């Protein structure tokens, strides 16, 4: 058995360092969520093969596929949880040929501002040749060629999760990149803002920040940048114009006051979006 070496993001161990005076943004909290979810996903990839842990039985009723509650892991380590209370009935697919697959899929995160997200698995009919990303197969569906739109039969295609233990040690993982060495990983630093003019709500100051002292490119592609403000007065901080060499920080007053501290410090962290790990 060969060793299984999943990709390990360079920023997987980066988390928030809480301290008094921090102004927490949605971006900060997302970073904290990702810290825990990335650890769990990597653990699942290393310990288990993708497949079904329990449930996900599929039966055919009135030309409709009915799926029981279930749990499993996809190849990315996502935990697929399907409560089965709603969305558990899938009609026959008429545009996928004589046979196709029924899959449980980890849902994509929508690019909308909502207070809550439902990350329960969803059901999707798709080609057996090109299955959906972040999915596990549940059943193979065969259509009745003599009766268009009618399901002829279904076959249980669930693959049970198995353990990868005991560990099999293989070749060391090495970073493979066709780009310049050193343009990966993480950069961090801090910036001091003059805040004497930030006296009323909406007052702002901006500052351009370079990742490295030489002001040259530090990343292959624009990274993800997080920033937090320290000090006794609260400010809002935003990041814009993110490039491979620099980005812009905007510090905004969110309270009205008679006097202001002369300065405020902003700590920033830039995380690469381009590093990959492959087998040697």
Descriptive report:
It is a single chain. The chain has 280 residues and is mainly beta. It has two domains: 26-38 and 175-279, Immunoglobulin-like, CATH 2.60.40; 49-156, no CATH class. 8% of the residues lie in helices and 37% in strands. A four-stranded antiparallel sheet has the order 8-7-9-10, with no helix packed on it. A three-stranded antiparallel sheet has the order 1-4-5. The protein has a three-stranded antiparallel sheet with strand order 2-3-6, with no helix packed on it. The relative contact order is 0.17. The model is unreliable at 172-183 and 275-280 (pLDDT under 50).
Keywords:
Immunoglobulin-like; 280 residues; elongated; 8% helix; 2 domains; mainly beta; disordered C terminus; single chain; four-stranded antiparallel β-sheet
Element layout with pairings:
Blueprint: H1 26-47, E1 51-55, E2 58-61, E3 64-67, E4 70-73, E5 79-82, E6 89-91, E7 99-105, E8 122-126, E9 135-143, E10 151-156, E11 173-175, E12 186-194, E13 204-210, E14 224-230, E15 235-240, E16 246-253, E17 263-271, E18 277-279
Antiparallel strand pairs: 1-4, 2-3, 3-6, 4-5, 7-8, 7-9, 9-10, 11-18, 12-17, 13-16, 14-17, 15-16
Shape, principal axes of CA atoms: elongated
Backbone structural class: mainly beta
Spans with pLDDT under 50 lasting ≥5 residues?
Answer: 172-183, 275-280
CATH architectural type of the largest domain: Sandwich
Number of domains: 2
Q: Give the C-level CATH assignment of the largest domain.
A: Mainly Beta
Please tally the helical runs, counting DSSP H or I stretches of 4 or more residues.
1
Rg from Cα? 25 Å
Report the helical percentage. under 10%
Q: How many strand units? A: 18
Give average pLDDT, whole number. Answer: 85
Q: Approximately what portion of the residues adopt beta-strand conformation? A: 35-45%
Spatial sequence of strands, sheet with the most strands: 8-7-9-10
Largest sheet: number of strands, sense, barrel closure:
4 strands, antiparallel
What fold name stands as the CATH topology of the largest domain?
Answer: Immunoglobulin-like
Secondary-structure element series: HEEEEEEEEEEEEEEEEEE
């Amino acid at each position: 058995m060969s060793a299984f070496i999943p990709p390990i993001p360079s920023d997987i161990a980066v988390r928030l360092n809480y301290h008094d005076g921090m102004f927490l943004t949605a971006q900060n909290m997302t970073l904290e969520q990702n810290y825990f979810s990335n650890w769990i996903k990597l653990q699942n990839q290393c310990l288990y093969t993708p497949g079904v842990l329990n449930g996900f039985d599929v039966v055919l009723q009135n030309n409709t596929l009915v799926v029981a509650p279930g749990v499993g892991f996809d190849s990315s380590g996502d935990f697929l949880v399907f409560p089965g209370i709603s969305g558990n009935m899938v009609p026959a697919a008429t545009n996928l040929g004589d046979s196709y697959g029924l899959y449980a899929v980890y849902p994509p995160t929508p690019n909308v501002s909502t207070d809550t997200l439902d990350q329960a698995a969803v059901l999707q009919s798709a080609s057996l040749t090109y299955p959906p990303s972040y999915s596990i197969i549940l059943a193979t569906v065969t259509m009745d060629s003599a009766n268009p739109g009618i399901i002829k039969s279904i076959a249980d295609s669930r693959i049970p999760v198995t353990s990868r233990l005991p560990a099999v040690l293989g070749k060391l993982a090495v970073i493979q990149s066709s780009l310049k060495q050193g343009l990966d990983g993480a950069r961090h630093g801090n910036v001091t803002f003059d805040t004497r003019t930030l006296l009323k709500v909406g007052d702002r100051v901006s500052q351009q920040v370079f990742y490295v002292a030489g002001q040259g490119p530090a990343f292959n592609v624009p990274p993800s940048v997080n920033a937090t403000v320290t000090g006794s007065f609260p400010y809002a901080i935003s990041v814009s114009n993110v490039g491979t060499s620099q980005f812009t920080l905007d510090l905004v007053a969110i309270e009205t006051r008679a006097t202001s501290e002369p300065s405020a410090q902003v700590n920033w962290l830039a995380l690469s979006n381009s590093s990959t790990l492959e087998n040697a």
